[in-house]
Amino acid sequence: MSDSDSRNDLRMPDDDEVFAVVTDMLGANRVKVRCMDGKDRTARIPGRMQKRVWIREEDVVLVEPWDWQDEKGDIAWRYEKQDADQLRREGHIQ
Protein backbone atom coordinates (compact mmCIF):
# COMPACT_ATOMS: atom_id res chain seq x y z
CA MET A 1 0.00 0.00 0.00
CA SER A 2 1.55 3.28 -1.07
CA ASP A 3 1.65 6.39 1.07
CA SER A 4 -1.10 8.13 -0.91
CA ASP A 5 -3.46 5.15 -0.50
CA SER A 6 -3.26 5.02 3.27
CA ARG A 7 -5.84 7.07 5.14
CA ASN A 8 -5.36 7.95 8.77
CA ASP A 9 -8.29 8.55 11.08
CA LEU A 10 -7.56 12.14 11.99
CA ARG A 11 -8.77 14.17 14.93
CA MET A 12 -11.67 16.24 13.63
CA PRO A 13 -12.89 19.49 15.19
CA ASP A 14 -15.33 19.38 18.09
CA ASP A 15 -18.37 21.67 18.02
CA ASP A 16 -16.38 24.59 19.41
CA GLU A 17 -13.24 24.08 17.29
CA VAL A 18 -12.30 25.18 13.77
CA PHE A 19 -9.51 24.30 11.32
CA ALA A 20 -6.91 27.05 10.86
CA VAL A 21 -3.59 27.70 9.13
CA VAL A 22 -0.81 29.52 10.99
CA THR A 23 0.03 32.70 9.05
CA ASP A 24 2.42 34.51 11.39
CA MET A 25 4.45 33.91 14.53
CA LEU A 26 3.85 36.76 17.00
CA GLY A 27 6.08 35.66 19.87
CA ALA A 28 5.08 35.32 23.52
CA ASN A 29 3.37 31.98 22.75
CA ARG A 30 1.00 33.60 20.28
CA VAL A 31 0.41 33.03 16.57
CA LYS A 32 -1.79 34.61 13.93
CA VAL A 33 -4.12 32.08 12.30
CA ARG A 34 -6.51 32.16 9.33
CA CYS A 35 -9.53 30.10 10.34
CA MET A 36 -11.70 28.17 7.89
CA ASP A 37 -14.75 30.13 9.06
CA GLY A 38 -13.24 33.15 7.30
CA LYS A 39 -11.86 34.96 10.36
CA ASP A 40 -8.28 35.84 11.26
CA ARG A 41 -7.57 35.25 14.93
CA THR A 42 -4.74 35.57 17.41
CA ALA A 43 -4.28 32.16 19.00
CA ARG A 44 -2.40 31.16 22.14
CA ILE A 45 -0.16 28.12 22.30
CA PRO A 46 -1.18 26.53 25.62
CA GLY A 47 1.47 25.59 28.16
CA ARG A 48 0.94 21.86 27.66
CA MET A 49 2.03 22.25 24.01
CA GLN A 50 4.81 24.84 24.31
CA LYS A 51 7.80 22.55 24.78
CA ARG A 52 6.36 19.39 23.22
CA VAL A 53 4.84 20.59 19.94
CA TRP A 54 6.69 23.00 17.65
CA ILE A 55 4.33 25.19 15.68
CA ARG A 56 5.56 26.95 12.54
CA GLU A 57 4.05 29.13 9.81
CA GLU A 58 1.82 27.22 7.36
CA ASP A 59 1.06 24.50 9.95
CA VAL A 60 -2.54 23.30 10.06
CA VAL A 61 -4.01 23.48 13.56
CA LEU A 62 -7.32 23.23 15.39
CA VAL A 63 -8.31 26.46 17.12
CA GLU A 64 -10.89 26.80 19.87
CA PRO A 65 -12.25 30.39 19.59
CA TRP A 66 -12.92 32.16 22.85
CA ASP A 67 -16.58 32.64 23.78
CA TRP A 68 -16.10 36.17 25.06
CA GLN A 69 -13.63 37.44 22.42
CA ASP A 70 -14.19 35.91 18.99
CA GLU A 71 -10.99 37.31 17.43
CA LYS A 72 -8.88 35.22 19.83
CA GLY A 73 -8.59 31.53 20.61
CA ASP A 74 -6.45 28.66 21.86
CA ILE A 75 -4.65 26.10 19.74
CA ALA A 76 -6.02 22.66 20.58
CA TRP A 77 -4.09 20.45 18.13
CA ARG A 78 -1.41 20.56 15.44
CA TYR A 79 -1.52 18.25 12.44
CA GLU A 80 1.57 16.57 11.01
CA LYS A 81 2.39 17.47 7.40
CA GLN A 82 0.99 14.26 5.89
CA ASP A 83 -2.20 14.65 7.94
CA ALA A 84 -2.59 18.24 6.73
CA ASP A 85 -2.12 17.05 3.14
CA GLN A 86 -4.85 14.46 3.71
CA LEU A 87 -7.21 17.15 5.08
CA ARG A 88 -6.56 19.23 1.95
CA ARG A 89 -7.21 16.24 -0.34
CA GLU A 90 -10.49 15.51 1.45
CA GLY A 91 -11.59 19.15 1.13
CA HIS A 92 -11.67 20.06 4.84
CA ILE A 93 -9.23 22.95 4.36
CA GLN A 94 -8.08 25.08 1.42
From TrEMBL:
It holds the Pfam family eIF-1a. Belongs to the eIF-1A family. SMART domains: eIF1a. The keyword NADP does not apply. GO terms for molecular function: translation initiation factor activity. Residues 6-80 form the S1-like domain. Coiled coil: none annotated. It comes from Halomarina rubra. The keyword Transmembrane does not apply. Keywords: Initiation factor, Protein biosynthesis. Seems to be required for maximal rate of protein biosynthesis. Enhances ribosome dissociation into subunits and stabilizes the binding of the initiator Met-tRNA(I) to 40 S ribosomal subunits. This is Translation initiation factor 1A.
